[in-house]
Amino acid sequence: MHDDAEDELLDLRLAVAVDSGGGGEKKRKRDENTRVPQNYQVCLDDDKMFEFLRVREVMLKLDPKRVGVEDGKGLHLIHLLLISATAIDEKKLCLAADNLTDLYKNVSLKGDSIQRVAAYFADGLAARLLSRQSPFYSMIMKEPTPEEEFAAFTELYRASPYYQFAHFTANQAIIEAFEKEESHNNRTLHVVDFDVSYGFQWPSLIQSLSDKATSSKRIHLHITGFGTNSEELKETETRLVNFAKGCLNLDFKFEWFLTGTRPVGLQTNKNDTVAVNLMFYLHRLGSSSKIYEALKSVYSLNPSVVVLVEQEGSRNPKSFLSRFMESLHYFAAMFDSLDDCLPPDSSERLRIERNQLGREIKSMLNGDKDEENHQRFERLETWKGRMERVGFRGFKLSSRSLSQAKLLLKIRCHWSAAEFDHGAGGFKVFEKDGGRALSLGWQDRHLITASVWHCV
């Protein structure tokens, strides 16, 4: 691996992994430790495999009150991850197994944030050493139940501004598009949500529209939601319909379809304000051709506004090491940010990390290598190019969107008002692309970006 790539990874901005002094000497030691011994074989024998699995089992049973790593040791954990990932990429599996054994001796799912994130990355790398038919692979990659997944999503939604920033920013843009067309839209808003998920985004929009409506000027809201699970979609429909019953002067309709790249059977009325919501959706389509086809389908609806929200990062499905490094930067920031939201020993935090963030890490490192099926996380510049090729143009978000985002952080984060500037604590709001996009970041790392588009 090139030195500059290694230096980039070892320079991860983890608040818990600060290493001071002696930089030159430590750099020489890193170079020496990274050399692969000549006697390592490509194949992985059973003894080495069972040893790192045994040490992993010990790690899982560690005392929850185990203290964090000593100063400077966090960098060592990152270094072990780097060597393991490089060895796996070069098929030096014995070296990878030895380093994973060392990792499992020093990480903990209940330690400080660097230990926690390193533990899940170690699991993701360990799974790459195992056959998918292995019971150990199934054990490491075990999926949470739908109930566990829902609980983790709910708890992250409540604790962190992560999802609320995305939803409130999107809803503000949708409301403004509706207001702009009130003179000719028959006071009707049709939202097409390509991944409605649990529907958590929409109660605030329903409430805002209800507050605008009067008995003589009712507002009609129609949400069409797409999803992959019919039972989940039915539950989402029940929640939203029941919520809307308590909102006066609002006529609400919800219908759902199972996900497809084209909105088959979707009907929009000519004068309605049509808003398309692409919330963490496009990255799952895999190939550029599928993304392009989906955007053409969106364009054919002639929407008044399209809201695009995606994780900010470039994780190339073709390159395991670049995907590994970018993912480590991203999830290190996510785990670190939870320190601002929840106590280290809270059961809510452990569930979020195990059933959502940890699952995403392991999935990212073990996704299908076929580019056609791999998730594509891209930076705003790449999404912008795709949108513009189809015929969309971005427009500047209003000052209300920026003020609302900053207020959200000020309310939700655990820091005093005197420390508030771009954001509270480590969370910050960044304007991008001349104000045509807003990003939520942790310290200097951009986590998610929202942008707003219209048809040319």
Q: Can you offer a commentary on this structure?
A:
- It is a single chain.
- With 456 residues, the chain is an alpha/beta fold.
- It has 16 helices and 9 strands.
- Strands 1, 2, 3, 4, 5, 6, 7, 8 and 9 form a 9-stranded mixed beta sheet that branches.
- It is elongated, with a radius of gyration of 24 Å.
List keywords for this structure.
9-stranded mixed β-sheet; 9 strands; 456 residues; 16 helices; elongated
Helix content: 40-55%
Q: What is the gyration radius calculated from CA atoms? A: 24 Å
Structural class: alpha/beta
Average pLDDT number: 85
Could you say which overall geometry the principal axes of the C-alpha atoms support? elongated
Low-confidence stretches: 1-42, 415-424
Total helix count? 16
Order of helices and strands: HHHHHHHHHEHEHEEHEHHHEHEEE
Q: Hey, roughly how much beta strand do the residues contain?
A: 5-15%
**In whole angstroms, how far apart are the ends?**
45 Å
Largest sheet: 9 strands, mixed
Give the beta-strand count: 9
